[in-house]
Amino acid sequence: MTTLNLNAGAMAPVMDEVDLAEFSVTGTIPQDLEGVLVRNGPNPLSGRFEGRDVLSWWPEAAMLHGISFQGGRVSGYRNRWVRTQRWAQVHDPAIAPSLIDTNPNVNLLCHAGEILALSEGGAPLAMTATLDTLGAARRHPGLADGMTAHPKVDPRTGELMSFRADWRKPWLRYGVTDASGVQSVDLEIELPSPSMMHDMAITASHSILLDLNVAYDFSMLSRGHRMPLRWHDERKARIGVIPRHGGEMRWFDVAPCFILHVVNAYDADASTVVLDAVRYPWYLRLADNIAAFEDNPLGVLWRYVIDLEQGSVTEKPLDAIGIELPRINESRTGRSYRFLYAVEQPTNTEMRGVVRYDLEGGPMQRYRVPEGDQNSEPVFVPRPGAAGEDDGWLLVCVYRHATDTSDVVILDGRDIENDPIATVRLPRRIPAGFHGAWLAKDC
User: Which residue from 104, 197, 256, 346 puts its CA 20 to 30 A from 278's CA?
Assistant: First the structure.
């Protein structure tokens, strides 16, 4: 297995919290770009990762990074550890019992007027746009027992669809929270055994859950692994489709695989659901000596077409290049869409470059990042009064190896191969993390 040096280069943690106000900018920052780009990811409180694989990286403490844009300029950068019990046990033990024992290091969401930092199954924490921790979610009491880090918001109804997958029973719960934060659906869904579920999808009428080949193996803990997850050949891979507000969960068998991240899903007609995702033929497969993992393959863009009437699935690749961290214009979530953006992966240890797909047959576009540098997922921000689905900006954090610093690159969502609209040069790095979000000024 390829080992990772988690303490050097793009993945290396930072050891402090800072506030910055002076930046070097090339190009012109759009006047209409008003809000905060937030990045989330693991950053050990000690300032150093222990271990050399991805399962040593995932569990570390949550740190947020925020870059604020206002009036055609960058108005500030700050980074903060999320104030959890873990943080307090190191920095302020006296207050630790009063804080929530969760680790929201994966994602960020604005819903019902509340900004939530999200963990892999734990309780979300309410935050401010300036990255201060407020504590337990105040407008989402139904999520206090935990939720996925990848819920989906219907941009038309404002409903939030989520699930909680757990190694303890009940192994899976599915829920719907209305636009004001009140939980309207809370269902237990039967599984034969606990499953690692990271993401989900929605259409206008259904929700889609993924019960695939990566699951728990607690014997791994006694063999020195940080997290008890691995590939299981013996498991069935299946996609579950349930009516949004409850009803029969229908499972559809698919070829063995693992999906970390979906792209989008939609109802092609009354009985056909289309799901696009980044698919791995296998993932986290233990090597023969069971002490380490084999090198993961690259994920590729994949399409599942589910015929609800016939009870069948057809599946096929849409492309062959390695990608991850796909994003779309989120106004198209759960509806038919045309454009998607993703990080290109030349190898399984690099996230380098951005690709733009036109699913109606237009040419692929690439934003190329020099060898040695790495980049985050692209976050799409619609232009106010946008004329089309891809009319907006793509914000990408790029780690520059030569200077050990990060840039924030602003690309035209319609033409990412053109020169950046603007490049903001930070005097420090934003470590590689999981996900980012754009918090508009009215969030």
Answer: 104
Please indicate, yes or no, if residue 4 is contained in any of the structural domains. no
**Element at 69 (helix H, strand E):** strand 62-70
Could you give the C-alpha distances from 110 to 36, 151, 153, 338, 379, in angstroms and in order?
12, 11, 10, 24, 14
Q: How many domains does the chain have?
A: 1
Inter-residue contact 279 to 257 (CB < 8 Å): yes
Tell me 54's DSSP state. Answer: H
Give the number of other CB atoms < 10 A from CB of residue 128. Answer: 12
> Domain for residue 408, yes or no?
yes
| Alpha carbon distance 211, 203 (integer Å) | 18
Q: Is residue 1 part of a domain?
A: no
Q: How far is CA 369 from CA 197, 355, 374, 425, in A?
A: 31, 11, 7, 15
Q: Give this prediction's pTM.
A: 0.96
Identify the domain containing residue 238 by its residue range.
9-440
The CATH number that applies at residue 56 is: 2.120.10.30
How many residues does this entry show for the chain? Answer: 443
Q: Nearest CA to 36 among 62, 86, 74, 93?
A: 74
Residuewise pLDDT in 10s, the chain (443 residues): 556 788 999 999 999 999 999 999 999 999 999 999 999 999 999 999 987 777 788 889 999 999 999 999 999 999 999 999 999 999 999 999 999 999 999 999 999 999 999 999 999 999 999 999 999 999 999 999 999 999 999 999 999 999 999 999 999 999 999 999 999 999 999 999 999 999 999 999 999 999 999 999 999 888 888 889 999 999 999 999 999 999 999 999 999 999 999 999 999 999 999 999 999 999 999 988 677 889 999 999 999 999 999 999 999 999 999 999 999 999 999 999 999 999 999 999 999 999 999 999 999 999 999 999 999 999 999 999 999 999 999 999 999 999 999 999 999 999 999 999 999 999 999 999 999 999 998 88
